[in-house]
């Protein structure tokens, strides 16, 4: 068979997973044809958004010891050691040491441990090195060519990827791995930007930053500005870190926590969101690198059994609130009681007590923060909430019953995927998951490292950070003031906080028709792909079948085009997590499934087209 040309659009971690498995397959079977991989991305190969030159203040939100880019040495046994270093092991080998809150390649300091959250810039270095290691191990039958430009279109007759620089890459197999996208401005955002344009002459500090990444965009904010940050999640923590410690401020240890020392370059930062609830800190990990809560109730077999009963009753799809959420709560209550009693309790007769149910209700909805009489009361309650939460986080995700309960959700992904993926829920339930449940779990389970909340408390006490609004806070564009105003109704009164800069601190899902880049729109317009829809609801992403083949406009699978990673978040669930040592990884499993399907399609007689297409390209260019 002739050499196969595989084009991968997007050079992030998912592309690396694919290349690693492809190299392993080619090494394991000399009978397979040679492969040329065309890696198409303007950035560093396989680093994706984790560029090495970003601010060192931006941390990964996963323990470095729980990140690896390498498959298990025994691919049939996920618990076998990874075939390459974890993020932590790599950092140690590179000579990185911890100096307070910084990490440098220098003598002295402290050794990086299993509980370190390392900067995302270092993750970018790790990903680049992992790519080099994979290439060093690759057989001679595989070649990787990196095209540092952007793919803007794809044609099938002939098969070509059209690049921004004018080149066209012939392909036999095509993989879309573009990850996150930046959305075109919505009508509301255009209205905000128009407000800024009209009023900048009256308020030169007036700015709207709809996407804070890269955080170099925040450099235009001056120390005299009042910055309104819309969103309280991990993106908001990045904005806060860049505008405080990133501008020369510092934190010092005190007997009661941290104290912030101003540099004088910080603006005033005011926070709000739809509910204006603070995120809980992650508990200190006491489960080891590969440990976790073992799902007792929300399991894949359990979901399959519910689905079978539902189908027998004439309902093909599940209702999340009725069928799934009670099992999540039950697993949380089970983890809570095990931690409280410091023993593994009997599963068979387990029923949450009214007290345990009330505790989970409060975790989901802290009513004391949602029913305040005003901003002053909200601020004091937020400070107490953060302090109490930090105390639980310090106890750890095993010893603290509260953190054991919230951390259990991390280990329910298999059951959640079984329920959600490929339109497994009713459209109304799918909307609830995307718009309510996922933000909820981000707040209670996937929050920041505990130090970030200790820093947030110090910044509040220093007067640098404060809350701008409470539950139901909304933005008003004040033409008279030429400023943004956050309004919140507390009972019968309304409170307002004005600001000069509005930063939207949210990361949006992949919406192919709204992407500022033309690739996904062109794929849809050509009928090569279609947005995923569950009934009349479009959560995110391009549609794929269970083999990860992109589905065409008519619903049929493409013979030679696949999608992987965040671009498929919609038909899939929780595609952004990186692989973890000693644990089954859906990301690595997806890469293996895709590569195996790709190679099988050629073994079954699909002839490579790239050589003929390349001849056409050369002929058109007058080159022989």
UniProtKB/TrEMBL annotation:
- What Gene3D superfamilies has UniProt attached to this entry? FAD/NAD(P)-binding domain
Q: Which organism was this protein described from? A: Bradyrhizobium denitrificans
Tell me where in this chain the FAD-dependent urate hydroxylase HpyO/Asp monooxygenase CreE-like FAD/NAD(P)-binding domain is found: 7-180
The record ties this protein, via Pfam families, to:
NAD_binding_9 (PF13454)
The molecule here is called: FAD/NAD(P)-binding protein
